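User: Just a sanity check before I run the rest of the batch. Below are the structure tokens for the first item. I only need the designed sequence back.
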């Protein structure tokens, strides 16, 4: 269970903060909800506490895992050999997973491709979304250095 004030990641929506835990009636039943304020746009969303696993909501990545992700981001081999439809499908699944590592891989791969040839509109949008998602989480990781943050910019 998440605590009030805890930073979380909601896949495809980004970073947020648990502002409250409230009970409300829905569909004739009393349910407990997390009230989450999203960092990017300040929107408030309500998620039933029993659906957090299905929603893939998770705590932010810790600094130890960040070191591994940074290594993959800087030294991993991009996966660019797939046809664009297959690549787009794979990248969409990675972003939807909500993991920092998967988003870092999408940014790395699309940036690599962008150096070789212009991205199509869909891939440009995906790159922008994945990069924003990545940076939203990075700024919340306690102990991250400015150099580590700049490595992903």
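Assistant: Here's the designed sequence for the first item:
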């Amino acid at each position: 269970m998440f605590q009030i004030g805890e930073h979380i990641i909601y896949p495809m929506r980004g970073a947020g903060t648990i502002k409250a835990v409230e009970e409300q009636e829905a569909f004739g039943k009393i349910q407990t909800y997390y009230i989450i304020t999203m960092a990017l746009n300040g929107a408030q969303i309500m998620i039933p506490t029993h659906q957090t696993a299905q929603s893939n909501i998770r705590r932010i990545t810790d600094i130890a895992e960040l070191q591994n992700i940074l290594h993959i981001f800087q030294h991993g081999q991009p996966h660019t050999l797939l046809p664009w439809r297959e690549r787009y499908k794979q990248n969409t699944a990675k972003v939807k997973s909500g993991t920092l590592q998967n988003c870092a891989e999408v940014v790395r791969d699309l940036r690599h491709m962008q150096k070789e040839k212009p991205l199509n509109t869909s891939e440009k949008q995906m790159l922008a979304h994945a990069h924003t998602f990545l940076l939203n989480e990075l700024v919340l990781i306690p102990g991250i250095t400015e150099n580590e943050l700049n490595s992903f910019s």
